[in-house]
Amino acid sequence: MTEREPLDLGATELSAEEEARLRREHDLDRPETFDRRNGVDERAATRATLLPEERETGSADPEAQAREVLRDSDVRTEIPESAPDTVFERRRSDD
Asked: Which stretches does the entry tag as region Disordered (predicted)?
């Protein structure tokens, strides 16, 4: 396995100290560990089938494409602050 680039949090409003803590806590500077913990490689293998519209356009590496989408989703799930432009709406069942 080759050394992978650290995972990107994107533009956030986190302080440098908070971002460093989150990077350590969630293995963002160790993508191999992050991938293994989240089962990214196994999940990517099952999600690499292209949709009809994607087949028309093509993909050089559908499995790598699936892997990147899964990583991004996992990072946003674990660290909601990594998507400051995303608004989470939570409703109670009686609303």
From this structure: 1-95
Q: Helices (H) and strands (E) in the chain — how many of each?
A: 5, 0
Q: At residue 72, what are phi and psi to the nearest 5 degrees?
A: -60, -45
N-term to C-term CA, the chain:
49
Residue 60 DSSP code: S
38-76 residue pLDDT tens? 999 999 999 888 888 888 888 889 999 999 999 999 999
The domain limits of the chain are: 39-83
Long-range CB pairs of 42-51, under 8 A, 24+ apart, other chains included: 43/70, 44/70
| Site of tokens 């460093």 | 20
